[in-house]
Amino acid sequence: VANHKNQQKVMNEYGKMLTEIINSISGNYQKNELAFLTLTSKIENPLRDKIAFEFQKKIGDKKLICREWVNKNDENNKSKADIAILNKNGELECVIEFKAHSSMKNISQWSKSLIDDVKKNQKSNRKSAIIFVLFANYIEKLPDDKIYINSIKYYENLLKATKLEYKLETIKNQWKKALKKRNIKCELTNITIDTGKYENQNIKIQAFIHENITF
């Protein structure tokens, strides 16, 4: 029971810190830089790297912030964790896994990824807190000129999604239903990131932060 309470405390501390970092993440980029990265790359990687460095700035003097971490004490499990936070004794305290979807279209399919990532880490990291973050691009309109198919990643998929006129609240409800369908229980935090503009179009990212995950 004591270990569970300690894990819960660690989870709450890192979860709160992660929420604060994501809430203010746009301020760590130049104007419209994050909008550019959102449409021209798989946004998971730029956000993961920025978040990792923000943890480093906040607690790097007391903790080890590791990217693409592999548990070297487990020879049977070579899977990587996107971000792992260890104490200076080398003990794992928290794992943060990220997934990104190019649009809000078919977002419910990512509930399986949540389960897979949690199971992957539970195999050898049962004493650590696990947080799962899903990013989904929320774009109301794309630049009209087809020339942008050359610069915008997943252009056709994004174009289909914008034509469906997804509403943000609708997507949030769809995601909650997807979690319920798989019997996933968690503390869920929603954050809308205003990334700025790309070719005069407003670009946003919806972040779903999952803590205390059970299924």
Describe the structure.
This protein is of the alpha+beta class and 215 residues long. It has six helices and six strands. The chain has helices at residues 2-23, 33-40, 44-59, 111-122, 155-163, 168-181, and strands at residues 63-69, 81-87, 92-101, 129-139, 185-198, 201-214. Strands 1-2-3-4-6-5 form a six-stranded mixed β-sheet, with helices on both faces. The two termini are 20 Å apart.
Number of strands: 6
- Overall, the morphology is globular
pLDDT averaged residue by residue: 84
What is the helix tally?
6
Order of helices and strands: HHHEEEHEHHEE
**Uncertain runs:** none
Strand content: 25-35%
Could you say which structural class the secondary elements and strand pairing correspond to? alpha+beta
Spatial strand arrangement across the major sheet:
1-2-3-4-6-5
Major sheet details: 6 strands, mixed
List the helices and strands and how they pair.
Elements: H1 2-23, H2 33-40, H3 44-59, E1 63-69, E2 81-87, E3 92-101, H4 111-122, E4 129-139, H5 155-163, H6 168-181, E5 185-198, E6 201-214
Parallel strand pairs: 3-4
Antiparallel strand pairs: 1-2, 2-3, 4-6, 5-6
List keywords for this structure.
215 residues, alpha+beta, 6-stranded mixed β-sheet, 6 helices, 6 strands
Short description:
The chain has 215 residues and is an alpha+beta fold. Helices cover 38% and strands 29% of the residues.
